[in-house]
Amino acid sequence: MNDASPFLELEPDAPRVTVRFDGTDYALPEGANLAAALLAAGVRIFRATPVSGAPRAPFCMMGACYDCLVQIDGVTRQACMTRVTDGLVVERAPGKDQKDG
């Protein structure tokens, strides 16, 4: 857990698995909500908007706003609707001036 994060983990003693986010490995609680776990680990920007390039991070945490979009195995998904599993490779979703894939 990142002590500088304003987000707390509900189960700090939960078993950890390795998740790679944008080239950095994180030890996240297995089975946790991916968006919540990344926020608690100190990740602040999940994607950039396609129009302006403005940074975005989770907002609603229930799958309605799409601000937490990430790419997992080349597929764009909502981090707030994804569970942490060992070996996930997550990238920021492409934003302005970036190409998919």
From TrEMBL:
One GO MF term = iron-sulfur cluster binding
On whether Oxidoreductase is a keyword of this UniProt record, the answer is yes
Q: Does the keyword Disulfide bond apply?
A: no
**Boundaries of each 2Fe-2S ferredoxin-type domain copy?**
15-96
PROSITE patterns reported for this sequence: 2FE2S_FER_2
| Keyword annotations | Oxidoreductase
Q: Which domain of life is it from?
A: Bacteria
From the Swiss-Prot or TrEMBL record, give the protein name.
2Fe-2S iron-sulfur cluster protein
Organism in which the protein naturally occurs: Rhodovulum marinum
Q: What is the lineage of its organism?
A: Bacteria, Pseudomonadati, Pseudomonadota, Alphaproteobacteria, Rhodobacterales
